[in-house]
Amino acid sequence: MERIHNCYRPVRERVKDFAEVERRLSEKEVREQTARCMDCGIPFCHGAGCPLANHIPDENAAVARGDYKRAYELLSLESDFPEFTARVCPALCEAACCHQLDEESVMVRQSEKFIIETAFAKGWVVPRPPARENGLKAAVVGAGPAGLSAAVTLRRQGYAVTVFEQEQEIGGLLRYGIPYFKLDKQIIDRRRAILEAEGIRFFTGVKVGEDVSAEYLKRRFERLVLAIGTPAARDLKIPGRGKAGIHFALEYLGQMARGENRIDAKGKRVVVIGGGDTGSDCVGTANRQGARSVVQIELMPKPPAERSETTPWPAWPYKLRTSSSHEEGCERRWCVNSLEFTGGDAVEGVRTEKVEWEGGKFTPLPGTEETIPADLVLLAMGFTGVGAENKLVKDLGLGLTPRTSVLSRPEENVFAVGDCATGASLVVRAIAHARNAFA
User: Fold this and answer.
1) Number of alpha carbons in the 13 Å side-chain half-sphere of residue 275
2) Tell me, which fold does domain 235-381 have in CATH?
3) Residue ranges of the domains in the chain?
4) What whole-number distance in Å separates Cα of residue 110 and Cα of residue 91?
5) Tens digits of residue pLDDT in 342-355
6) Which residues pair with 372 in a beta bridge?
7) pTM above 0.85, yes or no
């Protein structure tokens, strides 16, 4: 039995809407795929791959024999939000699968999606309030994946948990950074109902440090958790940066979840600067809005087609990845340095040059300057940390690392979890970091 390669709806169909691009595998397909699991003596998928340490071989065995309830029980031992990770995780577990040594890895992410959606459909996902209250209160600032994970972990330990979120809805990047076509927001709302039934309280539209002081939270709660992500996006401060039509990626991606449509790619020549997942999400969104053309440029070299020898198994491989958004239409260019945004008051192009990399440094290639036409430029170059001027961090007197990640202060029961503590990373790692912080 070979691995299924295409789990997506047809391109011509999915680019017309914002519904999730992945189809759900049939019961027959999932059982056949999980049966490919080899019952390894040492399951690297579990130990070296999954940050949550999910019991993947046991889950696969349960699914293969049709015992979906047991599969859900195993999955929920370590994973509080499998419906999120099964949609947006890059599947580090699959890269560490022993099948990678001689053939293609077992499909784990899609099988976990089947497990959790079956569990919801069967009514197995129910609130799990603590066995007893401990009489203590915990405040969590930020309702992204790390904040939600911290809230669940503390609630199950008996804390009365209150989550404060500055946006109008919970989810953080799950809602305001990841497009609907990868994660429908009803999935987040469905989980919120479970969390509220467990006794977790949410206050949205509240900016801690302004609407509520940090000192107030320290007085009222025995434990304070910061899960504020990495809000400082990396900027591109080159000539012409102030022109209209140049936006940060999350400004663009988050508008739909906020009910806005200020930035519309319809009929425009779109240039996405940054070759990562966020840039890919911009590509998919622009195509759905009806962009005239989409070009994605990246300063770094083009990755190799196969796993690089610099990232041997079972490490996450450095190699070229083509997303579902790329398949929908996009010109991709590597080794491109941006020099200037051209045009009048509004951007009309990006002046670039080709570069050559050697020894970790790049050198411009003479005679390679080019202006890429652009009516809309989206900056998707990652994040630089929390930022030294963050008011909440200052109010709490917390220290920062050289990369402006927040340092916890356990002696005062103030903790930083997720991206704000580790630097920008994956949703699954943020969840795992918060969960492990209070294990």
Assistant:
1) 18
2) FAD/NAD(P)-binding domain (3.50.50)
3) 11-122, 137-231+385-437, 235-381
4) 9
5) 999 999 999 999 99
6) 350
7) yes
